[in-house]
Design brief:
This protein is mostly helical. It has one domain. It is 85% helix and 0% strand. It is built from three helices and no strands. Helix 1 runs antiparallel to helix 2, helix 1 runs parallel beside helix 3 and helix 2 packs antiparallel against helix 3. The model has no long low-confidence stretch (mean pLDDT 77).
Length: 117
């Protein structure tokens, strides 16, 4: 058993990176579905209230960012080159965090836009 003060081996980092990559892959794939569902709901609200379409466009971009994150993390899981894996995982990480931020912005905008009408 390792002491808490010992440093992790490179294989520990690889396992951790793979674990993070799997979580990014599954979460971003699920979020693509969430974005598409909300776009459908917004279409109904737009048809009923004749609102603007900014929220729908934001969610469409959001879904594409989640999809890109999902595909990059899948590619990182499939690659056997550690350097490529690391780069792909970092880009997928950044895209996922950007998508999460856009999700919060979209939700805020939709809340204010719908409550204003």
């Amino acid at each position: 058993m390792k002491s808490p003060l010992t440093t992790a081996s490179p294989s520990d980092y690889t396992r951790l990176d793979d674990n993070i990559c799997v979580h990014i892959f599954t979460a971003s794939a699920a979020m693509v579905g969430v974005c598409l569902t909300v776009i459908g709901i917004i279409r109904v609200v737009i048809a009923m209230r004749h609102s603007d379409r900014v929220a729908e466009d934001m969610l469409a971009v959001n879904a594409l960012l989640y999809l890109a994150s999902c595909l990059l993390s899948y590619w990182a899981l499939r690659t056997r080159r550690p350097a490529r894996n690391y780069r792909l995982e970092r880009v997928a990480d950044v895209l996922f965090l950007l998508s999460l931020t856009l999700t919060a912005i979209s939700a805020s905008y939709m809340t204010w836009a719908i409550s204003a009408h």
